[in-house]
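[Discussion] Sanity-checking designs against the backbone

I'm trying to build intuition for which residues belong where. Below is a structure token string of 333 positions. I'd appreciate it if someone posts a full sequence so I can compare it with mine line by line.
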């Protein structure tokens, strides 16, 4: 199998780099300065076992790749960028006949639960991936992944349910690449569990790492709304105990220089000044389900709105105090 990593940022770069180290064929897909850096200098992947530079094929558009039936598309862009990527790649011809949407497996290696549904409109063979992989987009061309001895844990399964031989083969390749990849028939249950934990992303992006009791308390309020909404919608999600058992001490974090870890994916979006953030598909998913099922979600409404404002105005991550954010929430509750 050849892996085409659509979105070679933090997660895509870490997965693509580890696959390449294990001898698998990898093509990176990136845009703008990231594409230029990867093309000129390769992908620098920093992990606890040392930095490495991978000089891999890199493209900036689907037309630059001749697809074959042995290709696997790994979608690793933020969910807000999924439709454009899915539209661009699904129509591409595959050697021997048919299009990527008809012939190739597509793996959604993303936070949230919306991309799989978007993908299934365009691809016949869609796989969900619950990504537990702490990684940071350091600068163009450079990614750091602090997990050890495993770089990440990636639950994988068909969407909406089930498993198959393709999932097993992908998992086998990942597990040769320092990435544990349990194949599960209920992958969206795992992704909904991750969604609940990702409700903290907006708080972290706006106020900084959740080290204060007040920040943790605000997250617990957002989490309570999330659990209430999923219960009303009849959606099952993996709980913290089951997640902890699955990880089972298989991964720990080792900062490279002894400094505190950087923020997660939403914090990184703000720090890079991208102008967008994934809050619509994290806190916004809870707000959507709440409206569909008659459950108020004032905390997640405010977190979604505030994170979007920070992204749109390109405000510095962590520049609002927890007290200010909590006051915004309380004013609408």
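Best answer:
Here's mine. Compare freely.
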């Amino acid at each position: 199998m050849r892996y085409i990593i659509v979105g070679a940022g933090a997660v895509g770069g870490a997965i693509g780099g580890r696959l390449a180290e294990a001898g698998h064929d990898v093509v990176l897909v990136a845009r703008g300065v990231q594409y230029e850096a990867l093309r000129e200098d390769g992908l620098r992947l920093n992990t606890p076992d040392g930095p490495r530079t991978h000089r891999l094929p890199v493209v900036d558009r689907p037309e630059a790749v001749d697809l074959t039936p042995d290709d696997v598309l790994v979608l690793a862009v933020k969910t807000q960028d999924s439709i454009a990527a899915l539209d661009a790649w699904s129509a591409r011809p595959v050697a021997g006949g048919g299009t990527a949407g008809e012939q190739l497996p597509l793996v959604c290696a993303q936070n949230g639960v919306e991309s799989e549904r978007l993908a299934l409109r365009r691809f016949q063979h869609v796989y969900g991936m619950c990504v537990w992989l702490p990684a940071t987009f350091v600068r163009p061309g450079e990614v750091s992944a602090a997990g050890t001895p495993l770089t990440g844990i990636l639950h994988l399964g068909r969407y909406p349910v089930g498993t198959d031989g393709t999932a097993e083969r992908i998992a086998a390749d990942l597990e040769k690449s320092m990435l544990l990849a349990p194949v599960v028939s209920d992958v969206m249950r795992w992704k909904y569990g991750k969604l609940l934990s990702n409700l903290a992303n907006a708080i972290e992006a706006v106020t900084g790492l959740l080290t204060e009791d007040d920040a943790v308390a605000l997250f617990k309020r957002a989490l309570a709304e999330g659990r209430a909404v999923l219960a009303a919608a009849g959606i099952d999600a993996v709980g913290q105990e089951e997640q902890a058992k699955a990880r089972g001490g298989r991964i720990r974090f080792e900062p490279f220089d002894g400094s505190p870890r950087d923020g997660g994916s939403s914090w990184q979006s703000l720090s890079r000044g991208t102008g967008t953030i994934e809050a619509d598909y994290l806190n916004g998913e809870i707000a959507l389900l709440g409206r569909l099922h008659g459950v108020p979600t004032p905390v997640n409404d405010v977190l979604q709105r505030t994170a979007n404002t920070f992204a749109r105005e390109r405000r510095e991550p962590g520049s609002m105090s927890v007290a200010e954010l909590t006051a915004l929430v309380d004013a609408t509750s």
